[in-house]
Amino acid sequence: MSFLTPLAIWVGSISWLPRFLPVIVRCDKAIQWISRNRVALLDIAGLPNITLFVVGRKSGVRRSTRLLCAPVEDGWLIAGSYFGDHRTPAWVFNLRATDHAEVGIRGVLAAASVVELTGASYDDGWRTLEAVWPNFALYTQRTDRKIPVFKLGRLA
């Protein structure tokens, strides 16, 4: 957590912010490109994050997405929230189509198993994610869809 984290949480709670998600994503990608993928907006905000690498279910092309995460003992939790938008992020469909992915953290790649959480494990995972990013609670109010939660398990 950095001194900017509370500011990031406040900005993330602004109700009209999702309209600017495409602009935010473009700015984030520019920051990543300029820094050669060493820095992203999540890093600047002092929030834990990973780069998810997963093969596209239709294209077969390896895709990468920088995501907020909740580190857990044996991996990471991620949520397909898209700021509470009604659309599900494309990476969610790609993860659902496979049982493995790669996770990048500070330039180090790790193989990971993929499990979409359900039932009590979903509830526990959701609470863990909300502890990292309180705005997840707002996102459930912005959308009618159930926001998926995945556990990416660290493989040896």
Automatic annotation (TrEMBL):
GO molecular function: oxidoreductase activity
Sequence similarity: Belongs to the F420H(2)-dependent quinone reductase family.
Organism: Gordonia effusa NBRC 100432
The organism's place on the tree of life at top rank: Bacteria
PANTHER family: F420H(2)-DEPENDENT QUINONE REDUCTASE RV1261C (PTHR39428:SF1)
Name this polypeptide is given: Deazaflavin-dependent nitroreductase
Pfam families: F420H2_quin_red (PF04075)
InterPro entries the UniProt entry points to: F420H2_quin_Rdtase, Split_barrel_FMN-bd
Reaction catalysis annotation: oxidized coenzyme F420-(gamma-L-Glu)(n) + a quinol + H(+) = reduced coenzyme F420-(gamma-L-Glu)(n) + a quinone
